[in-house]
Amino acid sequence: MNLHQVLTGVVNPGDNCFSVGSINNQPFTAYASGCDIVILGSDFERLQIIPGAKHGNIQVGCLDCSLQGGQFSSSICTWCSTAAAGRTPRRILVLPHA
């Protein structure tokens, strides 16, 4: 493997690139993978990937989830999750980045 190669699905380096949240008493895990955000269910089944290509392909360096309501924030955007299957979370705030 060359240094420039990327393993897809791997969590970004750092202590703040993953977090656990909850929506309707159902836990989920969100983690940053490159410029994408991956959401896993309580059994670690992949539920959704939010592609970073829509936000300038900026590597996500920080991610945090709420234990109430299903919201999560990254170093790029704040998202409001929905419990309905198949619906995409909507972006509610874009944070400035360097």
From TrEMBL:
Gene Ontology CC: one annotated term: RAVE complex
Gene Ontology biological-process entries: vacuolar acidification
Entries under InterPro entries matching the protein: DmX-like/RAVE_component
Protein name per Swiss-Prot or TrEMBL: Uncharacterized protein
